[in-house]
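New to this. Explain these tokens.
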Amino acid sequence: MVRALGSTWRLPLAALGVLIGACDGEPPCGPSAGGPYWLEEGQAFAATVVCDSGAPVPAGATLAAIPPGRPTDREPIPAGLSFDPATGAMAWTPGLDQAAVYDLEVTLPGPDGVETTTLVIGVADAFDDPANVPVRDPGRYREEFGLPVVFLDPGPQDPEVYAPTTIVYRGRLVQAEAKKRGASSLSYPKNSYTLKFPDDDRLDEAAFPARKKLVLTSTFDDNSYLRQRLAFATWNQMSATHLPIGVDHAVVYADGVYLGLYLVSDHVDDDLMVDHGLAATGNLYKAYNHDANFRRDNNDGDGKATLADGYEKKAGLPDPGQPGAFADLEDLVAWVADADTAGFRAEVDTRLERADFADWWVLVTLIAGDDSAGKNAYLYHDAAGGGRWRYLPWDFNHSFGQTWETQRQPADAQGSYRQRNQIFVHLLDDPGYRQELRDRIAALLAGPLAASTVQAQVDAWWATIEPSARRDWRAWAGAYRTFPRWASRTDLTDVDGELAYLRAWIDARWAHAAVSFPDD
């Protein structure tokens, strides 16, 4: 496919003719060539520069390339790209060593001097061609089918220790650090990573302003490529008072090898808390297993060694291992575990940002995020400042109709998550709070989380990631279908089948939620 970014139309690969424009046809010409255009190495491309009116350009046009980072310089056009100065016609079949994003400038004589127009041709790496040449210059390969590209060299090998690496993100080179990340996902052939930028050279993207760390999450376990992003977006859109998680998609290469489509997200840490206006000295904890249930007994029903079992301390003082490191968390767990309904109501609004925790229940209930109802969560507390506890979500490969091992989960699956989270028990047992949960779901389904709105978001994101998702599926479909954790499934889907399943599940789940929640 040759794709024009941001458009809704597709053009055939060969003998392509493009005529763009609509004005009065009088001088000056107002040259245009459309685009941006996206294709793969080895695919044929053709376009014609025309006047805004659709009339041919005046003879004598020239074509030059604009080198990245040097907007006033010009250099020869890429080898093999032909341009007819008399007609404005261009044609090209990029070779297997020409993957890059090319910014081209057309200059032509006009009645009052020269006129110019620029066009972008993005040539994606033919990663699965046996004769392919790896991307030669990551600085010139800033995007792939409109998505930002991340290069890691060398690719991280250790899940515990950050190692130096060169990161090229959307064409910008940074000497930084990275490591593998994850728990069960470490067994995937397509790994996840954490990127760590220097303090004086942080990433500064629209979705991630001045971030020190970012997470690249593998999409290997989700061939819709949208579940995790949908989950975080659901949280972000529920309330302006939430602590949001920034998300985007990107394409990743490591050691010159194509790894495919990834979710890029904020890394939840003390820097992010500061970015959200919270104290840098606050304590940040991550719930990493189901012992993080706000009870005195662990997930197996046995007494806990400490009330902080199931949590890691990610920021704040005292450091882990020091006396009192988990004191405020242990106090919270003890209070939640021991409180009766009246006691919980009496103190909850002095201890918790209750809306966060109520929306936590709404979020996991609505999207069936079973694995994130107790664990896979962050808790932040400014103990010194006397602030209330806050919640941030994490890790949603188990959501929107599939489990963490990709098995299907019906849209009418019930579950109050009482067994996962004692805070939820208190909210559900109190008649007033229970009614608030019911009203909250109704308001969200009639407002920012209406099924039509969510489906429109799915459509918009899919339009943006579709070429990259299909390339990723080309790379990983075989490994996905034979991966031991779910190879025994008899209902495995391809990209189109999974997307259709996701859309149908959302409609069915939302309809079920409108009449059934909360319901034990």
About this structure: The first strand starts at residue 2 and ends at 4. Confidence is low (pLDDT under 50) at residues 2-25. The CA atoms of residues 105 and 118 lie 4 Å apart. DSSP finds nine helices and 23 strands in the chain.
